[in-house]
Amino acid sequence: MQMGMIPGCLVEAAHVAPAGDPTVYRVDGTEIALRRETCLHILVRNEHS
Amino acid sequence: MESCHTSASATVTPIINPAAHKLVALIGPPNTGKSTLFNRLTGLRQKVANYPGVTVERHIGTARVDLTREVTLVDLPGVYSLDPRSEDEQVTHDVLEGKMPDLPKPDAILLILDSTSLARHLMLAAPVLSLGIPTLIILNMSDDLKRRGGSVDPEALAQQLGAPVVLASAVHGTGIEAVRSFLSKTIPHPKRIELPILNNMPSCRKWSGQMADGSGYNRPAPPEWTYRIDRIVLHPVFGPLSFLFVVLAVFQSIFTLAKPLMEFVQISIQTSGTWIEAALPETWFRALLVEGVWGGVGSVIVFLPQILILFAFIAVLEDSGYLARAAVIADRTMAKVGLQGKSFIPLLSGYACAIPAILSTRTIENKRDRIATILVTPLMTCSARLPVYTMLIAAFIPDRPLVGPLFGTRAAMMLGLYVLGFVAAATTARLLKSTIFKSEKTPFLIELPPYRIPQLSSILYRLLDRAKVFLKRASTTILVTMVLLWVMAHLPQQNGIAPPMEQSYAGQLGKAIEPLIAPLGFNWKIGVGLISSLAAREVIVGTLGTIYGIQGDKDEMGLQRALQQDLNMASAVGLLIFFAFALQCISTIAVVRRETGSWKWPAIQFTYMGVLAYVCSWTAYVVLSRFL
Questions:
Q1: Contact A20 B332 (CB under 8 A)
Q2: Which residue of A11, A26, A31 is the best one to mutate when testing the B interface, meaning the one whose CB has the most B CBs within 10 A?
Q3: What is the ipTM of this complex?
Q4: Are strands A30-34 and B445-448 parallel, antiparallel or unpaired?
Q5: How far is CA A5 from CA A34, B248, B447, B469, in A?
């Protein structure tokens, strides 16, 4: 949350690590790597721009 | 009066008074350049690098603010918020609350934010300003902001936040004078402004966005180069390939590149040794100096170039921002062994030295994960093992090209030993995590900083510091052990002459443990080496240097030839494995004791690593003896 991943923000998947996990997401002007198991706790809506 | 080289001006020493503020704390999110600014202001050299979580302790220094006054600064670990989650964040929290017994509550704050992520970083301004402590806000990395086409009006931001704002670039030194001049005056208390509800992140984020917008903040363009490089570095095929390439390049160059430098050091030590021998009368003191100090300590110092080359590579990887990517690539493996990605950076820095690696585990929030990481970190191949490995590899592994002419058998063997250390650490972690350290999975989060070109001066300073640490070790722990060993090798005297090595105290000690190590294929001489290397691993090189030196072989080739007489291929591999696993380092034991708060963990660690070393070394010796 303090890193900028807050309800309503735009999340963009940038890179997937070579082993398939974790994935690097672009959030609020920064890049954060998250494991799949962590992402399961985050609800996202598909928003094609 | 003290003698001075210069004229009268030197006698007028200005009296340094404390400035308006007694203690100023540096606060900010991780990787925003707090330590770089701290180093700029104080002239100290705390470690800085381009990944979050470099600073895990508080560091105190004084900064001259003008000709006659100075102020005490405290550099703190980076935090995203003021509620602590890990041990390093707790430090920041305790200092701010004035809970540190030896440190008063800071009476001013320097809030350092990354100007390229201003809209997000301003979130930290809300809880900091609500403390009501005089605060100066520093928007760092202004050069990056400008280059990427972003801009901000510090005046407008100051107006909105009710606190002074300075735009700065700590790396290049711009804005530092402004910071100094603020420190020389009294920083005002922050004006009362409307703040968001502090524990409501969405409202804090909304507020920080409004603050940024209100100050004409233009977000910089995304770091295109970082995206481009990451497309290769994190690519499913090229990613691991480039990782492998980097690793191979490092290993080959610690052989190839270091060789001429090491030969130079070797010759200098030998030549100066011969001079001393010629200059002094033949006494026991000359023998001690030549055989014990020059032969013993000298044979360890030879490895300084190699260690510095390793550190130069590590520094480039850290400063460029590659380390955070390596953590992402390795995270899957870490997850499989049950550790989190945050354990990777301590493990990786364990390749340099276990001590800073163990300190950096403070960024791990989960206590059990942290102790598990501490317990396995010394299995990573630290630079103290490098001399031992190099010596044994040079003596027993023939040098043949392997992958083309550039990557040879010796570098491959060295790489194998490094991999062995990592595999051992990973396996042990897996065992620990599935038995005594079962814990809830904690989310893995790591911020990937943009790539930056490493600063040459920063790398050179780090190498200089490392060289100092190495030479200090050589002139304390290693020197003392060497002198002690030399004395023990010459006593008890029989009719005024030193006994044969085997009958000396040192020899007797080796003989005493010979039954224990004979199954591993080691004789009493190696035994003396093993005992002395309990102080520090690289001491064994000096010890063997001294033992053989006393026997008449002084040069490096002599040491290698002598080793070939005492060990065969099987027992040499056994010895390499023993050194890969055993915890022979007093400093590590002391640090683990301090970090875990009891003797229990270092005792467990010493025992399990010792047993592992013995069993694996024995297995390797027995198996290889059968086949070779």
A1: yes
A2: A31
A3: 0.87
A4: antiparallel
A5: 11, 38, 12, 42
Residue B77 lies in a domain: yes
Could you give the CA distance from residue B149 to residue B156 in angstroms, rounded to a whole number?
A: 19
Q: Could you tell me the end-to-end alpha-carbon distance of chain B, in angstroms, rounded to an integer?
A: 74
Q: How far apart are CA B482 and CA B484, in angstroms?
A: 5
For chain A, list residues with pLDDT below 50.
Answer: none
Beta partners for residue B447, in sequence order: A32
- The amino acid at residue B399 is D
Could you tell me if residue B164 is inside a domain? yes
Number of domains in chain B: 1
Residue B472 resides in a domain: no
CATH class of A1-49: mainly beta
Instruction: Provide the b/e sequence for B399-436 (b: ≥16 CB within 10 Å).
Output: eeeeeeeebbebbbbbbebbebbbebbbebbbbbbeee
Query: In this predicted model, what pLDDT tens digit does every residue of B13-47 receive, in sequence order?
Result: 556 777 777 899 999 998 999 999 999 998 888 88
What is the residue type of B602?
P
Considering CB atoms only, which of B119, B236, B335 is closest to A29?
Answer: B119
User: Is pLDDT above 70 for B441?
Assistant: no
Helix axes B367-376, B600-627, angle to 10 degrees: 40
> Can you give the CATH number for the domain in which B136 is found?
3.40.50.300
Q: What is the pTM of this model?
A: 0.81
* Residue A10 to chain B, least CA–CA distance (Å): 13
Which residue type does B174 have? T
Establish if B141 belongs to a structural domain. yes
Query: Are B455 and B513 within 8 A, CB to CB?
Result: no
Q: Which amino acid appears at position B458 of this protein? A: S
B185 contacts: CB under 8 Å, gap ≥ 6: B20
* B468 CA to centre of own chain: 13
B66 lies in which domain range? 16-221
As to burial, measured by CB atoms within 10 angstroms (0-12 exposed, 13-18 middle, 19+ buried), residue B189 is middle
Give residue B111's pLDDT.
Answer: 95
Residues in chain B with CB shorter than 8 Å from the CB of A12 are none
Three-state DSSP class for residue B134: coil
**How many CB pairs below 8 Å do chains A and B form together?**
100
What is the DSSP pairing of strand B108-114 with strand B17-27?
parallel
CA distance B119 to B217: 8
What are the domain boundaries of chain A?
A: 1-49
